[in-house]
Design brief:
The complex is a heterodimer of chains A (109) and B (116).
Chain A lengths: L3 E3 L4 E4 L4 E7 L6 E7 L6 E6 L3 E5 L2 E6 L4 E6 L8 E9 L2 E4 L3 E6 L1
Chain B lengths: L4 E3 L2 E4 L5 E6 L6 E7 L6 E7 L2 E4 L8 E4 L6 E5 L8 E8 L10 E2 L3 E5 L1
Classes of the chains: A mainly beta (109), B mainly beta (116).
Chain lengths: 109, 116
């Protein structure tokens, strides 16, 4: 069974703080990793993806991947109230994309 | 570039009735996915097409769900007969890379189904 696990939250951070979202996966053959943001009542939208171990930065977002630990995370710097949403981790192995249940983030003004 | 189109956006039906959802992927995308997302859960893959062939339908409840992509472009997902637990958002998605770990999946707005 290929599993993608996320802490469901809710995770609450004050405006301007760093939000840290975590995801673990069970399939060691996983090759690519994605973070999607989903606002309430909307469909998921891609934030960023990462393939290689280490960090990948895109604006206020940083994805971190550690394949040995089967762990991927998303850091959001200078969190804004508009970042309040559910963040979905997705893991792709051989064209099989699996999603976690998502972490609900609330950024308080 | 137009995104993934889905219709209808909202549907309310009684249990044991049937419903059909339509999806038109992003132009040029060979891979099309149907996901089911129940409130509070992540999307669950129902079926994946590559062009007009089925790649994975292992989680599709085949006794009541069916899907087709006859010409390798748009797709229809049908539920017959519907059960209360089918109440969910049905998300269609597409990607252009096939057989590659570099797939980026783009979602449509979803079709919201309520079974009463």
């Amino acid at each position: 069974q290929k599993e993608v696990e996320q802490n469901s939250g809710p995770l609450s951070v004050p405006e301007g703080a760093i939000a840290s979202l975590n995801c673990t996966y069970s399939d060691r053959g996983s090759q690519s990793f994605f973070w999607y943001r989903q606002y309430s009542g909307k469909s998921p939208e891609l934030i960023m993806f990462i393939y290689s171990n280490g960090d990948k930065e895109d604006g206020r977002f940083t994805a971190q991947l550690n394949k040995a630990s089967q762990y991927v995370s998303l850091l959001i710097r200078d969190s804004q109230p508009s970042d309040s949403a559910t963040y979905l981790c997705a893991v792709n192995a051989n064209n099989d994309m699996r999603f976690g249940a998502g972490t609900r983030l609330t950024v308080k003004p | 570039e137009a995104g993934v189109a889905q219709s209808p956006r909202y549907k309310i039906i009684e249990k044991r009735q049937s419903v059909a959802f339509w999806c038109n992927p992003i132009s040029g995308h060979a891979t099309l996915y149907w996901y089911q997302q129940i409130l509070g859960q992540g999307p669950k893959l129902l079926i994946q097409f590559q062009n007009n062939g089925v790649v994975d339908d292992s989680q599709l409840p085949k006794d009541r769900f069916s899907a087709e992509r006859l010409k390798g472009v748009d797709s229809t997902l049908k539920i017959q007969p519907a059960k209360l637990e089918d109440s969910a958002v049905y998300l269609c998605a597409s990607s252009w890379k096939t057989g590659s770990s570099g797939n980026t999946i783009y979602f449509g707005e979803g079709s919201w189904l309520t079974v009463v």
